[in-house]
Design goal:
The complex is a heterodimer of chains A (about 325) and B (about 130). With about 325 residues, chain A is of the alpha+beta class. Helix content of chain A is about 15%, strand content about 30%. In chain B, about 60% of the residues lie in helices and about 0% in strands. Classes of the chains: A alpha+beta (about 325), B mainly alpha (about 130). The interface of A and B includes residues 1, 14, 68 and 163 of A.
């Protein structure tokens, strides 16, 4: 089951094991330049506020009520990353799609897990996802764009703006496999603590989708457990609707978050950049289908517009290096 | 002159202090940051007062201090408040707004197993997509 707790999705399977709990949150961040250079991981700048779609049944498009799930506001061109937190010791397989395009495999949404190509991530090995997996060790940042203008991955691949938003599906480890894992951990003192970066028929015009932005250095890791350990009979899933900040106020009556941080603010506030090394974890190849997508800047130019990307200078010597066992490290920016 | 009654009977919080002390001393065994003096400093009370609380010689502190203790010692605040014979102001407010409904709900769930109670927590609804 999935609950909302402190602007996070709390996913749990209490009937399976009391450890079977993980958290998914959506984190505000700096939009990196879309200039085909590669950038390290930007910091967390607060969580997006989450709401039940059902709480605003009179104000949201009918399709959203059919989908159920939650909503949160994003400014146009704002960037976001997804944080996977795990309060207990239980691993999970997590699938993420944008506009029902799988962000790891690039394939259309399908209900189960696939091993070849792998269409999911495993936590805790994968603490966060910042974008679409385009090449081995490289993603294109998730950037919010209005549906219907052709920027989103969904529109570029299907020619339609049917779904938008994000789709999340979480699979727990089968109980007997988890018990085995616990036994192995007891004998090997294996630890999994890791450093935190501390989170249609065209649907309504307020809907946003995710488009591929700038290139970022991030690996998506191969499943170290194997496909058979996951309990595909108990998946929990959630449709996450993205709404622009103006419509957010109209729908919820709440003030939207402050405007996204700019590259200048980021630099002036000395907010760090991060690199994450997954230890022995093996990185997946990127998805060829996603690698062919136009980034927001490329699409803007193709449409006859001009792309004015901010200049961001990253001091490589000052990048904070995070490793799976670097407990206490937090991918957080300072207050802004 | 009437004596002001103490809030909560001693029996409702006698386990609080020893539990707190046990948790703190477990942590202090590995990390000196959890000495009585340092914890007291972080939650802004006198060490002597915290010592008395741990020994059960005085009633548990205010809700705010218990929350600060829970945060400092990485404990669940609702559990610590319950051990202190208190209910959080947030929960009191929830019940105060709909006393009949929540009174009935809590009575019905009194003997339910944990997993059944967890299922009642509001879930994010999944629809067709």
């Amino acid at each position: 089951m999935i609950e909302l707790q402190d602007d996070r999705l709390l996913v749990s399977f209490p009937e399976l094991h009391r450890d079977a709990q993980c958290r998914v949150s959506f984190v505000r961040t700096l939009r990196i330049p879309d200039d085909n250079r590669t950038y390290p991981l930007p910091a967390a700048l607060g969580r997006f506020p989450l709401h039940h779609v059902d709480d605003f049944a009179n104000n949201v498009p009918r399709e959203w009520l059919e989908h159920g799930g939650v909503l949160f506001p994003m400014y146009q061109s704002e960037a976001m990353w997804i944080h996977f937190g795990r309060p207990s010791g239980c691993p999970f397989a997590i699938k993420v799609a944008a506009g029902k395009i799988n962000a790891v495999s690039g394939r259309d949404w399908s209900p189960g897990l696939e091993g070849s190509p792998q269409n999911y991530m495993v936590i805790p090995a994968q603490p966060w996802l910042d974008g679409f997996s385009v090449h081995k060790g490289l993603i294109r940042q998730f950037v919010a764009m209005p549906l219907g203008e052709g920027f989103t991955a969904e529109e570029q691949l299907t020619g339609k703006a049917s779904h938008g938003g994000l789709q999340i599906q979480v699979f727990p480890m089968r109980s007997e496999c988890y018990q085995e894992l616990l036994k192995r951990r007891a004998t090997t003192r294996e630890t999994f603590s890791f450093g935190l970066r501390s989170a249609r028929s065209t649907v309504g015009s307020e809907s946003m989708g995710l488009a591929p932005g700038g290139l970022m250095r991030q690996e998506i890791y191969e499943d170290p457990h194997g496909l058979d350990v996951w309990d595909t009979t108990r998946a929990a899933r959630c449709f996450v609707h993205l709404v622009n900040s103006v419509a957010y106020r109209e729908i919820t009556g709440c003030a939207p978050p402050t405007e996204p941080v700019t590259a200048d603010h980021y630099r002036e506030a000395f907010i760090p950049w991060f690199e994450y090394y997954g230890g022995d974890a093996k990185a997946l190849e990127g998805a060829p289908r996603l690698a062919e997508l136009d980034s927001v800047a490329a699409k803007t130019i193709k449409k006859g517009g001009k792309s004015a990307e901010p200049v961001v200078l990253v001091d490589e010597a000052k990048i904070v290096k995070l490793r799976p066992r670097s407990t206490g490290a937090v991918r957080e920016g300072s207050a802004w | 002159m009437t004596r002001k009654p103490r809030k909560g009977s001693p029996t409702s919080w006698t386990g609080f202090g020893p539990y707190l002390r046990g948790v703190r001393e477990d942590k202090a065994a590995h990390d000196r940051a959890f000495s009585l003096r340092q914890v007291a400093g972080r939650i802004e009370v006198e060490p002597a007062y915290l010592s008395k609380v741990e020994r059960g010689e005085v009633a548990p502190p205010s809700e705010a201090k218990i929350r600060a203790l829970a945060k400092d010692l990485q404990q669940d605040p609702d559990v610590l408040l319950a051990m202190a014979g208190k209910v959080s102001a947030e929960l009191r407010e929830i019940i105060r707004k709909r006393p009949k409904e929540f009174g009935e709900l809590i009575r019905q769930l009194r003997d339910a197993p944990d997993h059944a109670i967890l299922r009642i927590a509001r879930q994010v609804r999944d629809g067709e997509w």
